[in-house]
Every structure is written in structure tokens, then in C-alpha cells.
């Protein structure tokens, strides 16, 4: 790959070893053995186990084996059909120090509907929120980019699902850290926040059929004007009304079935 101008960042032991044909299937014990005996000589970052459904019985044995764990850099998982209740991973928080946690493949909510259906596309916003906040994943990687159900339509234009994804990806860039926020301040409302230097990005998702008013307080923030962007039934990554922040506090409305991003410099 390097000889052809492609520098690999990481390599996975096996894509979806628990959702595979016979020749690509691996058991958890086989992955542990490979990590123990072979992965140490791989000269990229090593990713495992990439269960198709974040099944912990595939990754628990890695975390519980000190030698295998030493030879893996990234615990990878896919979230096809994963229940929200299965997103938290206490064992990783306990034993995964120094390792990264990546969500390496998914499409959501399905591959049959148009990516422009609304409010179905808003489900992507909730899904990303839950992956980053509940699951504490450090990456969120979509399956095919250009597909009728993907973030880009077959004509190359951004879809509603893509616009929803962009509310995170456009402003939450590599190097940002997620900071604590009240994740579910009201039913069907989701809030996440990220920081890099003095810049704070707040992403809000309102899945209710009516508008919601929220009061925000951002610690250690003075008085500034913050731009916002909105995607809804009638808007797509549209510049929305700025908010005025006074001593770190401001009120904002989240329109019905919408996602709104606030960028505070």
C-alpha cells in the first residue's frame, strides 16, 4: 500500500468476525491468540474485534488478557442493531486505558429508505449522539458515503442524513474533546458538547413534533455572540439566528424535529 502512495493508519484483524462466512469467521479465542502471538510485529495500529453488533463476548476476552491487550491499539465495533442499553462499556473504561474506542462501521436507521426522508433522517443525529455520549466512542464511521441511503446521494449532493451527520462532523474536528453536558434535558431532546481550545461546539437534537425552549449555561464563558446552524424539514445546514450569550448563559429554541449546532468562540 505504501508503495502505491497509501500510508495505512491501522489494520483490522477481521471485519465482522461474528457475522461472516466460514473462511472469514473468527472466534474470540482465535482473535486473542492472534493478538498474543502475531499482532506485535504489525507496523500499523491494530484494530479488533469489530463485532458487527458490538457484542461484548468478542471484546471482553481481549480486555481480560493483558498480553493480547498490549498488542491492540483500537477496540473497534459496528453498531448494526445494537441496543442503546448496550452502548456503555464499563469493562473498557476499567481496563482500556491508553487504548482507543472506535465505531468503525454503520448505517442508520436502514438501507432501504431514501436518505432524504424527514424526520427519519433525524434518527442519524440521535444515533451519533448516543454513540459518542453513551458509548464514548471516539470515532463514528459511516458505511458507504455515496448511496441512496447515505450521507451523499447518488447525484453527489448531500442528503438529509448527511446534513444531520454534518452538524457534528463539520464543526467537531479531529483534536476536539467531548465535554460534559446534560445529555437528555427533556424527553426526545439530546445535547452534546465538544471543545478545542477556546471554541465550544454544542449539538442539539429535538425529535419532538413541537418546538422546545432550552436554557444553556456554559462554564467559564463570558459574553459573546454565537452563530448557529439548523437542519429541519425545510432547512438543510442553514445558517440560523445567532444567540447572544451573557456571562455564559443563553436561551435558544430548538424547532420541531430539528438538529441545531451552536459554535461558541
Q: What can you see in these coordinates?
A:
- The chain is of the alpha/beta class and 265 residues long.
- The chain contains six helices and 13 strands.
- The strands form three sheets. A six-stranded antiparallel β-sheet has the order 6-7-8-13-10-11. A five-stranded parallel β-sheet has the order 1-2-3-4-5. The chain has a two-stranded antiparallel ribbon with strand order 9-12.
- A hairpin with a 2-residue loop joins strand 7 and strand 8 (199-206).
- Helix 1 (28-37) packs parallel to helix 2 (56-63) and helix 5 (122-133) runs parallel beside helix 6 (160-169).
- The longest helix is centred in the middle third of the chain and has 12 residues, at 122-133.
- It starts with 9 loop residues before the first strand and ends with a strand.
Structure annotation, total helices:
6
Uncertain regions spanning at least 5 consecutive residues: none
Mean pLDDT: 97
What series of H and E elements makes up the topology?
EHEHHEHEHEHEEEEEEEE
Roughly how much helix do the residues carry, as a percent range? 10-25%
Q: First CA to last CA: what distance? A: 40 Å
Q: Could you give a short account of the major beta sheet? A: 6 strands, antiparallel
The fraction of residues assigned to DSSP E strands is 25-35%
List the helices and strands and how they pair.
Layout: E1 10-12, H1 28-37, E2 45-51, H2 56-63, H3 66-70, E3 74-78, H4 90-95, E4 100-106, H5 122-133, E5 139-142, H6 160-169, E6 177-179, E7 189-196, E8 199-206, E9 212-217, E10 224-231, E11 238-245, E12 249-254, E13 258-264
Parallel strand pairs: 1-2, 2-3, 3-4, 4-5
Antiparallel strand pairs: 6-7, 7-8, 8-13, 9-12, 10-11, 10-13
